[in-house]
């Protein structure tokens, strides 16, 4: 008698979730005990999200590490403690926040690249906002991330790999704002630099790209501390390229920590920190 063994190798496909005003998919997702789990490409009506938040915290996750989310309708809750988490610490799928988020709790977003295209606000005192990307983070022009004495943390390169595409690791576009009203504001990543390990947002692109680019933006901590860590690891460019109003009050401190492959590429000079005109602290 011959015995045959068969080895089956398979993989679970990535999931895509769209949160919109459209009708919810009949399957591919489930909601239980404050967790919305996505198992197949799905659409969920935003009313499902807002109703769940009215009862407390909500975590939205896929069952793979490649979970892509597009938010195209506003999420809002005034219920105290209505914290919102999108993705998990192992998620590498891109997150596009194309509609506003305003909740009375913490906001945590985990993804590959995170595109914050609308305002993000935590209205509960002391509640934090975290954007954690294995890739890069981009805050659109004239958009605001705001807390009420909660910390604002933008952490790129979460897997420790510097960005190799034509994107800064963290980019605050023109007219954007981070307003913490007493909380700390930290821009950095999981890359090692002069100040230590697992602190820096970092780029490693042939031809150069600044690691942290702050373009005519506002960072105001109102008594909290502000720290920005950026490192350009190869080619000529800046660790931090800065054109911004950066302010705090009282015992709050401001620290800018830039490492760079600096010098002159024949056209421009680059350094750990480059101040563009109209920058102020």
Question: Can you describe what's shown?
Answer:
3% of the residues lie in helices and 47% in strands. It has one helix at residues 46-53; strands spanning 15-20, 29-32, 35-38, 42-45, 58-62, 67-71, 75-77, 84-86, 95-97, 101-103, 107-111, 114-116, 120-125, 129-133, 137-139, 144-148, 152-156, 170-172, 177-179, 185-189, 191-193, 196-203, 212-220, 226-232, 240-247, 254-259, 263-264, 269-270, 273-275. The strands form 3 sheets. The protein has a 15-stranded parallel β-sheet that branches. Strands 2, 3, 5, 8, 11, 14, 17, 20, 21, 22, 24 and 26 form a 12-stranded mixed β-sheet that branches. Strands 27-28 form a two-stranded antiparallel ribbon. It is globular and about 60 Å long. The termini are far apart. 48% of the residues are buried. Residues 1-11 have low confidence and may be disordered.
Strand content: over 45%
Count of extended strands: 29
Low-confidence stretches: 1-11
Measured as a percent range, the helix fraction is under 10%
Q: What characteristic shape results from the CA principal axes?
A: globular
Largest sheet: 15 strands, parallel
Give the assembly state of these chains: single chain
Q: Compute the number of helices.
A: 1
Residue-averaged pLDDT, rounded? Answer: 92
Order of helices and strands: EEEEHEEEEEEEEEEEEEEEEEEEEEEEEE
- Secondary structure category: mainly beta
| Rounded Rg | 20 Å
How far do the termini sit from each other? Answer: 81 Å
